[in-house]
Amino acid sequence: MHNNEYYVSLDIGTSTVKVIIGEMENNSLNIIGVGNVASEGLKKGQIVDIDETVKSIRKAVEQAERMVGMKIQRVIVGISANHVRLQPCHGVVAVSNENREITEADKLRVKDQAELVTIPSDREIIDCIPVSYKVDEIEDISDPKGMTGVRLEMKGVLITGLRTILHNTLRAVERAGLEITDIALQPMAAGSLVLSKDERNLGIALVDIGGGSTSVAVFEDGELKGASVIPLGGDAITKDISIVLKTPTEESEKIKIRYGHAFIDDDAEEEMFTIPVIGTDKMQKCNQFVISDIMEARLSEIFEMVEDEIARMGVKELLGGYVLTGGVVKTPGILDLAQHVFQNRVRGAEPNYIGVREPQYTTSVGLITYACRKARSQGLQLGAHTVAAASEPVEKRPSQKSPQKEKAPKNPEDKMSNKMKKFFGVFFE
Questions:
Q1: How many C-beta neighbours within 10 Å does residue 379 have?
Q2: Nearest Cα to Cα of residue 362 among 11, 76, 58, 5
Q3: I want to staple 177 with a disulfide (CB 3.0 to 4.6 A). Which of 14, 91, 398, 427 is the partner?
Q4: How do residues 198-218 score in pLDDT, each as one tens digit?
Q5: What value does the CA radius of gyration of the chain take, rounded to a whole number of Å?
Q6: CB atoms within 10 A of CB 401
Q7: What burial letters (b/e) apply to 39-65, b meaning 16+ CB within 10 Å?
Q8: How do beta strands 74-79 and 5-12 pair?
Q9: Cα angle 351-352-353, degrees, rounded to a multiple of 5
């Protein structure tokens, strides 16, 4: 068992913080640990209290650690799309081998060359996604490794984020006593898990409806065309119910989960129940029709804002339709409502792994599969030292102590670690 690779993802959301431990055995992923706790210190997808965020991360990590009896050391962190920009990039290098055979080192060099672009001082490069390669005069190559040539070119998409928001996220993870092995844009990770190759080529929108925000990502011609975040999610529905019915927020959440329906046409008006009135000892009667009316209005608004964001990206037609994921997608009738608003094909998506077969885990599991695929394509092993046998109770994590810096690795497989340390040096030195 200890010869297998382990990958740990950290998904810091507005409503919950999720930690997933995956074991890679014979190219097959098994989910062996899950941590899911209420998130504190975030608002509309952004950190507003770093100390509370650190506490939430520690709680989620400890919960996952207790499931497997191991101590988590390294994590793959998801970055929200609420501050990202996409821009095309281009790199050119000469093939280094004497026999002119293109190797993985050449692919890394041309990628590094493509990242040498001028960006605003308040932004930092998150990732560079290769779109296609060109070897001498041969274009549209998906993977040039093993081919022969003199000149290697790469066209890609450069993903940048606001330095301040990245600083806060990465600082919170560091203060929680964790080392970051890789970072990934959340929509990219989720899309790699639940979207097929044909869907990404035809043109499709991935809509992730969480508690505090809704992320929208459009894929076309096999690549990410645009991504943005709408600051509305399931928490807004809970607040609406609380305001309209004058009932406590905690009770509103229970009502939403138990009686909520997204499409008025399918509700049950005769189903009655009682709810408390805030500030009094009185109870009032209510039916599912009223709850559905509130929920449909807010969800319709969110879907209309999704359409506006997609139009702003310059996308006119989505032949692949829409894919909905995220915790709110469990709401009965939401796919019917989405189809009514979008006037297009709509389907729900969730991970197909035991223990995490719920739409709220799509991004968390996607971070693992995306980072694993990326590492294998570059000949790296991100999961080599992700977890360790617990030599002390897993509940006792360091309170404020930062992880000790490792010596520079000499193994070529640890190039990713060096790159990440260089990236984090901007913030932590």
A1: 15
A2: 11
A3: 398
A4: 999 999 999 999 988 999 999
A5: 23
A6: 9
A7: bebbebbbbeeeeebbbbbbbbbbbbb
A8: parallel
A9: 95
CA 44 and chain centroid, separation: 15
Question: According to DSSP H, which parts of 39-140 are helical?
Answer: 50-68, 104-114
Measured in residues, the chain has a length of: 429
Instruction: Enter the tokens of residue 250.
Output: 């905690």
Place of tokens 């004497």: 98
User: To 5 degrees, how large is the angle CA 357–CA 298–CA 268?
Assistant: 75
Query: In order of start, what are the domains of the chain with their CATH numbers?
Result: 5-82+163-187+360-428 (3.30.420.40), 85-160 (3.30.1490.110), 200-348 (3.30.420.40)
E strands, 142-244, in order:
151-162, 179-185, 204-209, 214-220, 223-230
To which residue do tokens 């915790």 refer?
A: 327
In this prediction, residues 11-29 reach a mean pLDDT of 89
Neighbours of 279 (CB within 10 A): 8
Q: Are strands 138-141 and 123-135 parallel, antiparallel or unpaired?
A: antiparallel
Q: What is the pLDDT of residues 322-333, one digit of tens each?
A: 999 999 999 999
Cα 69 to Cα 325, 388, 398, 405: the distances in Å are 31, 9, 17, 25
Q: How far apart are the first and last CA of the chain?
A: 37
Nearest to 33 by CA among 428, 394, 420: 394
Distance, in Å, from the CA atom of 409 to the CA atom of 219, rounded to the nearest integer, reads 36
Tell me which H or E stretch contains 276. strand 272-276
SS3 assignment, position 5:
strand
CA 49 to chain centre: 21
Q: State which H helix or E strand residue 342 sits in.
A: helix 334-342
CA 13 to chain centre: 9
CA distance linking residue 12 with residue 174, whole number of Å:
13
Tokens linked to 396: 């006792």
- pLDDT at residue 183 above 80? yes
Both tokens of 157, joined, read: 């998409």
Q: Is residue 401 classed as helix, strand or coil in its secondary structure?
A: coil
Structure tokens at 16: 């919950």
From residue 19, alpha-carbon distances to 7, 76, 178 in Å are 10, 10, 12
Both structure tokens of 245: 């019915």
Q: What is the mean pLDDT of residues 363-369?
A: 94
Has residue 164 got a pLDDT over 80? yes
Angle between helices 249-259 and 288-312 (to 10 degrees): 90
